Amino acid sequence: MYAFELVRPATVAEAVAALAEDGAQALGGGQTLIPTLKARLAMPEKLVSLGGIAELRGVTVEGDEVRIGGGTPHATVAHEVAKAYPALASLAERIGDPHVRNRGTIGGSLANNDPSACYPAAALASGATIVTNKREIAADDYFQGMFATALDEGEIITEVIFPIPQAAHYEKIRQPASRFPLVAVFVAKFADGVRVAVTGAAENGVFRWTEAEEALSADFSPSAVEGLSADSDGMIGDMHGTPEYRAHLIGVMTRRAVAAAG
Amino acid sequence: MPDGGIGASTKRREDVRFLTGKGRYTDDYNRPDQTYVWFLRSDVAHGRITKLDTSAAEAMPGVVKIFTSADFTTAGGIPAGWQIHDRQGEPMKEPKHPILAEGKVRHVGDPIAAVVAETRAQARDAAEAIEVDIEELPAVVDMRAALEAGSALVHDDMGTNLCFDWGFVEDNRDAVDAAIKAAPHVTTLELVNNRLIPNAMEPRVALGDYDQADDQHTLYTTSQNPHVIRLLMGAFVLSIPEQKLRVVAPDVGGGFGSKIFHYAEEAFVTAAAKVVGRPVKWTSTRSEAFMSDAHGRDHVTKIELATEKDGTFLALRSTTLANMGAYLSTFAPSIPTYLHGTLMAGNYKTPQIYVNVRAVFTNTVPVDAYRGAGRPEATFQIERVIDKAARELGIDPIEIRRRNYVTEFPYQTPVAVNYDIGDYNALMDKLIEIADVAGFPARREESAARGRLRGLGISSYIEACGIAPSNLVGQLGARAGLYEAATVRVNPTGGITVFTGSHSHGQGHETTFPQVVASMLGIDAGSIEISHGDTAKVPFGMGTYGSRSLAVGGSAIVKAVDKIIAKAKKIAAHLMEAAETDIELKDGRFSVAGTDKSVAWADVTLAAYVPHNYPLDQIEPGLEETAFYDPSNFTYPAGAYACEVEVDPETGVVTVLGFAAADDFGNVVNPMIVEGQVHGGIAQGIGQAMLEAAGYDENGQITTGSYMDYAMPRSNDVPNYKVDHSCVTPCTHNPLGVKGCGEAGAIGSPPAFVNAVLDALNSGGIKVDHINMPLTPSRVWAAIQAARA
User: Per the database record, which ranges form the FAD-binding PCMH-type domain (chain A) (predicted)?
Assistant: First the structure.
């Protein structure tokens, strides 16, 4: 990696101030950024580590909501929400490997918005609220394409609020090398309808499969989506799968997620 | 016999240091005043260097010197160690492989310049400041296109991308053509043996040191064969006499073939250390390893098997394009030829065989030996085409193999080699037992109930190990002998140091070799130490590859110990005033037959070094012997493998549920280590068959340049294995009766896996003839879709 200055603020306010300076970039758990730096694919002048900010960590369950601090590692989420929101816990405990789960954070994952990341599917399917140092952003407004989000420069995710659904499941098929989702689907059933979010598949990143949502809102059973197929337009095509294969998998993963959610 | 002799599953003594972080690998070596080198590597596959200006980079902090090809005008190219002659008897095309690119770059990763600096980061920073312009040329990537008229040329002066067009056995060509034409049934299969990137856990490292006082060069390097490196680099590249060059290969963290070869980086650090007057160290990054370690496999093959209607094999014809990459790596020409063509008989008495291999230069990383080296490529074709023939002819895949097994030995194949011994039916019997083939139908039903397709795949394999009779390989074009050497030094108090030319980089020699010596002498294995990997210490040895260490290196040790015993008996006879012919050695004591007189091992060894009461008029003091062993034939390990998989027809995901291996390795010294070798080999074979593939796009860019896209097998990709090596037919021509076990798993497993997936699909009514490796979910799904269309 290239040389950079490392700043380690203790509070969100200090971090925001540090990020306001030219050439500064936030460092969460570093599970994407550090390998990028090691390959000399990025050249930040200053990294502002969010790892030492206590107020960014932690999970609380209040009524029908789970609130997760932006700096909370996946392993903590897996452990802390196992009872309140098992589908979310299950997603967290299947991200990467133990190293990634203990370093990588929910805020980092959502801020990066990798088109093959797991958390965006949970946030979008749950209708989560992304809380930053400045505002609250609905998940439906937050994800804006591959590696693109509603976040402004220097804006930090402080908390993510997940409404707890009546039933939910996250079904994924892994890309054999990276073990990121090749295609994964998060299905969440709420009193007012079903939300289905797809990750790994589309060039524009996570998206809601509205056709399936309508069918499942009417009848929450695998057979309700049996005849549905996603459109392969805009799907990722690479050595691990053609757009047609990914489109096909969306249907399979959705049916299996519904079956598992019960 | 003491504990820990031949046959004991002694725990690996080297693991204590490996598992506690105390191993001493090449990167752990640092010399005073050391500098670091970073190689500026080509980021295009093919191009002409139109500008190379290092002046700005030279002014960067910490830079000691920047090297280009202009600094190596007197050096030779990196040599090929094997010369193939083509069908017309002409020698292969042998382009120069310079240390640093001369005018042209020929693959992504080809080194253009080298920056030596005070720190690695400074060297890398300066390398980025080198101004280099490359006029990009069309990349030669596809082998078929490379051979078409008008293709761009990897090496302009050769006028062709064809390295050689080899026929084996050329005299069989017409007879095989005629037999195939006349046969009642011919099964044809076109297949790819996918290109692999070796990915040893320890990346390559080279540290060059030069001592001005005595004009001595030392190279510390991650090598499987330090003497071979000394010979190739000293004699052919840098013109350093061997007595002035020491090569040290300390603990090496895996090689799988990729650390056999002499690499440009080794020559660079050795030469540069003298030029800059300071040690020069290179440590490969993992990213560099993907584009600078020699790759493996990469064959495109058409195989035709002619049979009677009852499945009796009549003739076999194999036509292969073999990728050499941009330059000839050390043993590259021998892999698709003599390590591949000679194995095309497999375990079967096919009367007529002809193999044609065209080796092709492309703008890709050089390709060379990788675990199995030619033999997996041969086995895969044979075992796949047999399975297809069985399906076409309606014969059970086990039955068709049995009908054609070689059952009488020695057996002269139509492809030059002579199998000394084996029992392939016994191996298949054992396999059927350990794989519970009888219980398979019930397991298939259980899978079907869950909507999954279960398949059972069978393969047999034979390999030629114990490489190799020097006079034979010399006739075939090897530019080296392939014997092994050992020195056994008995110390005055009875402990022993064995200096071996074999090199352990994971095999466990420090444990198994003492077991052999301990059994011969009847002493504790713990008093025996193995020394290897340093040309200043060990006798000239050819190193470790081709499953040769125990069969060849171990035999050299046996010969040296035989000499030790003969001399020790003379000393013992003198001490006990008895006739030498009456002396017996048992449990570490010499005794006079028929008497109660005896002396201990240590009494004799002490007498050898304190020769007060000693037959000085008959023998010299001391107890140290050296032996060279040159095998009279290859060894022929064989086995029968079964793989059981489940296919999810909706997603194409394949799960390996079971894998059984029945191997005949001859006598086994350490069953636990043998089992571990088979486990690792199968994991690599499943890796090739299910996960791994090096990809290049049409511009010659590597599309699998990191673990994000190159899929290595993980522990949960592979099942618990059932491994058996109780079927033993001891090798007839080496003193230990051993055959070698290092590559078997990687050779026998890919066809078993692919056969299993195809069995699952076809038995489930999805008619698929073949899927090229790796059988990723997307490929399996696409094959299912095509079958249903």
Answer: 1-167
Q: What is the pLDDT of residues B617-656, one digit of tens each?
A: 999 999 999 999 999 999 999 999 999 999 999 999 999 9
Parallel/antiparallel/unpaired status of strands A5-7 and A46-49 = parallel
Closest partner CB to B776 (pick from A178, A240, A249):
A240
> In this complex, do A239 and B782 lie within 8 Å of one another by their Cβ atoms?
no
Q: Are residues A221 and A243 in the same domain?
A: yes
Q: Which amino acid makes up residue B345?
A: A
For chain B, percent of residues with pLDDT exceeding 90 = 98
Mean pLDDT of A141-154: 96
SS3 at position B678: helix
A154 shares a domain with A79:
yes
- A176 contacts B711? CB cut-off 8 A: yes
Q: Is B461 helix (H, G, I), strand (E, B) or coil?
A: strand
CB contact under 8 A, A242 and B710: no
User: Are residues A105 and A142 both part of a single domain?
Assistant: yes
The distance of Cα B137 from the centroid of its chain, to the nearest Å, equals: 34
Residues B416, B342 contacting (CB under 8 angstroms): yes
Q: Is B777 close to A176, i.e. CB distance below 8 A?
A: yes
CB atoms closer than 10 angstroms to residue B216: 15
Q: Are B139 and B363 in contact (CB under 8 A)?
A: yes
Cβ-in-10-Å burial (0-12, 13-18, 19+) of B188 comes to middle
> Nearest 10 degrees: CA dihedral of A215, A219, A224, A230?
30
Name, in order, each residue with C-beta under 8 angstroms of B115's C-beta and a sequence gap of 6 or more.
B37, B38, B39, B40, B57, B63, B66, B67, B123, B124, B126, B127, B130
Nearest to B778 among A39, A40, A241 (CB): A241
Domains annotated on chain B, with CATH:
14-21+483-629 (3.30.365.10), 31-137+201-254+259-292 (3.90.1170.50), 299-467+633-788 (3.30.365.10)
Task: State the average pLDDT for chain A.
Answer: 96
Instruction: Return the residue in B119, B778, B785 with the most chain A beta carbons within 10 A, the one to mutate for interface testing.
Output: B778
Q: Is the pLDDT of residue B2 over 70?
A: no
**A-interface mutation test, from B119, B647, B651, most A Cβ less than 10 A away:** B651
- Cβ distance B356 to B300 under 8 Å? no
Is the pLDDT higher at B273 or at A229? Answer: B273
Query: What are the tens digits of pLDDT across the range B325-342?
Result: 999 999 999 999 999 999
pLDDT recorded at residue B1: 47
Residue A36: which domain range? 5-49
* Helical segments of A127-242, H only: 139-142, 210-218
Q: Which of A158, A160, A164 lies closest to A132, judged by CA?
A: A158
* Cβ separation B707–A178 shorter than 8 A: yes
Say whether both A146 and A60 belong to one domain.
yes
CATH number of A144's domain: 3.30.465.10
Interface membership of B695 toward A (CB under 8 Å): yes
- Tell whether B707 lies on the interface with A, counting CB pairs under 8 A: yes
Task: Mark whether A68 and A133 lie in a shared domain.
Answer: yes
Six-digit token pair at B65?
């010197």
A60 plus A154 within the same structural domain = yes
B651 touching A (Cβ < 8 Å) = yes
C-beta separation of A88 from A169 below 8 A:
no
Say how many C-beta atoms besides its own lie within 10 A of residue B17's C-beta: 13
Q: Any alpha helices (H) in B537-686, and if so which ranges?
A: 555-575, 601-609, 671-686
The answer to ipTM > 0.90 is yes
Confidence (pTM)? 0.97
Residues of B with CB below 8 A from A182's CB? Answer: 777
Looking at A106, A141, A163, the residue that finishes a domain is A163
CATH number at residue A180: 3.30.390.50
The count of CB pairs under 8 A between chains A and B is 45
